[in-house]
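Pasting as-is:
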Amino acid sequence: MIPFNKPYVTGLEQDYLEQAVRSGRLSGNGIMTRSVCNRLQNITGASNVLLTTSCSTALDMAAILSGVGHGDEVIVPSFTFPSTANAFVQRGAVPVFADSTDLHPNVSADTIAHLITERTSVIVVTHYAGVPCSMDAINRLAGQHNILVVEDAAMALGSTFNNKPVGSLSPLTAFSFHETKVLGCGEGGALALQRSDLMSRAEIIWEKGTNRAAFQRGQSDHYEWVDIGSSFLPSEIQAAWLMAQLKEAESILNKRTEQWNRYYLSFQHVLPDGFALPVIPENVHHNGSIFYVQCPDKQVRNYLISALQRAGIMAVFHYLPLHSSKMGQKWRSDKTCNQAEKWSDTLVRLPLYHTLSVQDQQFIIDQVVLACRHSVN
């Protein structure tokens, strides 16, 4: 069976793990953590980056920093992972679900604008498949209403919009280093900050609500509880593993783009009518996080997944829209979020990982074309 995903090991991990052990410190915010944060600053163009245990906890930090509370409305995509909404629901905010566009699973300024009310405090966007949303229009809309923008960039490290890296586009951006991502450390994340006025509090929240980081830098003669927070920072072991990945980031991202392009060019002009490939705006460079085929309907989607499974290939669909989930039905959405439902019903993700061979990828391509043609006959 060709798996859907396989975590990549660069071969440098052991060296960095040994360095972390030799340092004599395995708890967080040591040499490895600081080195990783510096590298992520360079990749993202962010003013500051804080390494976290996951993208979910990075979003939790963003929610605290946003200042949302009971009754505030937060606009979130319906087609996204629950963590995107959970972070703000835990603060007492009310999620308002925005629909996807017809051309891409992402939200846009147009799908967001009519949801804004006097209670809207935050707009959260998700860059699905590593393809950035149209951030100039979204930031402009948010600015008109004095609304904070938070980006869920779990899949988008290394992607750019208008030649600007994701992480530099909005005040707060959350990244993931889960093993399913292009760069990973098993479990991990980061919060990129582009507003210097947020950094001091972010660091306190990151360190369990204490000024411990300032104390370690010699900026205070003691540390104490000064704000709310939690244990958001990972150990030096996770940071060391991620450092090995980041050292090879350019080659990993380049190969992923090459593999993504091989799928796209191979399927272009050969799939039957009713099937569609990802639409990538000209002003976007994406990191090849996910390759998907859009099917005509749910029945064909299920047929394609089953046919590929019979051929020894694991392909999968993706999110159930949040607005139609058990939890999400408690809150307001954009009518029925028809486009999000369409993407949920028709999208099939294909295997894509660093060690996927050209031969295996060609086999997948051949089987997809064959199954798609059979599905319409």
